[in-house]
């Protein structure tokens, strides 16, 4: 598995670079998912987000998801880059690229990847609103932070 395909960065993400990592002659389909910072969440106006991660573990979990995808969709290639730090409205937080000989596998694998990232990758989000801020638990919003912030890795 090519570790360079699974990255955590504090720099803006270039989607075409992530896409390029999975392009190949055998692939008739390349899907690209861009997760961006939206302005409104459940009626609250977001000013900006902050992401934190445990980078070594996050990369290991992204690699794990890549292996899961290969097991379910054997002819796929995947790459993921997730950004940390302060992100403004419209900034790209995550890019997922999947290539496969046919489009169905590429679409399905791409959706699977974002859902698994939210479930298991140690990346945490703090939302800053007009009227305050809060850490939003894990990305799947299934775990609260009793101390008000994510655990330190």
UniProtKB/TrEMBL annotation:
Which Pfam family is one of those matched by this entry?
Answer: MoaE
Q: What is the lineage of its organism?
A: Bacteria, Bacillati, Bacillota, Bacilli, Bacillales
The protein, known as: Molybdenum cofactor biosynthesis protein MoaE
Q: Where is this region: Disordered?
A: 134-153
Tell me what organism the protein belongs to: Paenibacillus melissococcoides
